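Figure S7 source data.
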Amino acid sequence: MLRNRQDTFGWGAIVLHWAIALLIVGLIALGYVMTRPDIDPELQFSLYQWHKSFGMTALALAFIRLIWWLSNIHPAPVASLSALERRASSVTHALLLALTIAVPLVGWAIASTSTLNIPTLFFNRVLIPHLPMEKSEAAETFWSDAHAWLAYGLAGLVVLHAGAALLHHFWHRDVVLRRMLGIFRRDAASNAHQQPEGTDR
Amino acid sequence: MKQFYGPCLAACVLVLAATSAEARAPSLDDAAGRYDIDGSSQINFSVAQTGGGGISGKFGKFSGTFQLDGKDIRKSVVEFSLFPDTVQTGEPRIEKFLRSSAIFDTANHPEIVFRSTKITQTGEDTAEIEGKLTAKGTTRTEHFSAKLTKWNRRTISFQIEGGIYRDHYNMSAGLPIYSNIVQFDMTVNGQKH
Ligand code: HEM
Ligand code: HEM
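Tokens for the predicted protoporphyrin IX containing FE complex:
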């Protein structure tokens, strides 16, 4: 099923989640590499352009996910989660949701305020206009710093979030990760924590 | 992201002089001779970018000479050198990029040279200059158009224009966001020897 159910995520949420996750991890690594000072200048220019194109892709997907998230029911938390875990996970998810939109928007603000005035040409094909912001070195520095802090903050949250998912899967052996992977059986919903080695399909 | 070129030509002096109808026109013999390209010349270039605008700038240091042949304009010769390290665009980060290995690689190729091989008159005061341009280790034939704009006994000025495909010179960084064509628009002033 495309849409979420009471007991698990639908394909829409799953595909969006993993596509965005892949993009975010790649963009953080790319963002780090491309800003090293000793990098070859021609390569650096290309990497920046790839970063902007993939970053815009992430922004579009994150935006679609926000709409998806607002218009779908949310599966109930896995029954075995404590109240604290539920709170922690819903706060983390809300932050992840917000940062996946805020980080690329702030990136777009860097490109838009930069005195270099380099166009964002989406995968060398479609011109994405700059945001209507004044160009200045001060603004560019401000947005670059904000982008770096938010992006590395997002990276920290992702580690926490992925760590928790892996902990649930390999330690608690519950369905938390499986229902985001789409390998979840309906009958496992209520008592999955009691059948850790149930076949996955 | 551009390159440059630059020659200066000598052209039309012949015609201008020949159309002696003008009382003030100096004689052909006066125009013939050897000129040094002087520092008041403007070596401007621009590279368009997607969505409008682009990078424009100039080179601060260059040198050259031209030899005008009063009898046969085709025998005139232009030589021009420019030092890409002196590129100016108004944005230090862009200048740094242009000097880097991505574009001029000024550390290894400090000089860009143009030497004319053929000058053809195309109008009363215009000519086409063909020559060898050497930049970043590559030599190719390029063309510029020249128009005589000012002339007196001591000095002569030409407006020289031409477009160079930078990817031919291993300067393709920034494609396709920045145009492959570097447009030169130069005012070349010669001081007679
Ligand atoms: C890299 C960036 C990532 C981001 C931005 C991200 C974001 C999110 C968000 C916003 C949700 C909530 C979804 C919703 O309620 O509709 C979520 C859920 C989930 N994520 Fe991620 N995620 C990322 C990476 C990962 C990784 C690497 C893993 C696993 C190793 C993972 C496992 C999960 C799981 C299992 C859930 C479902 C939690 C639940 O049942 O409520 N995520 N993620
Ligand atoms: C979710 C998407 C994105 C992530 C995770 C991300 C991540 C990063 C990271 C980690 C850096 C390196 C920061 C540093 O060490 O200084 C960076 C730099 C940068 N990002 Fe992004 N980015 C994203 C989207 C975008 C977008 C959409 C744009 C522009 C359209 C963009 C433009 C830039 C620029 C221009 C820099 C370099 C800033 C500088 O030179 O200091 N980013 N990004």
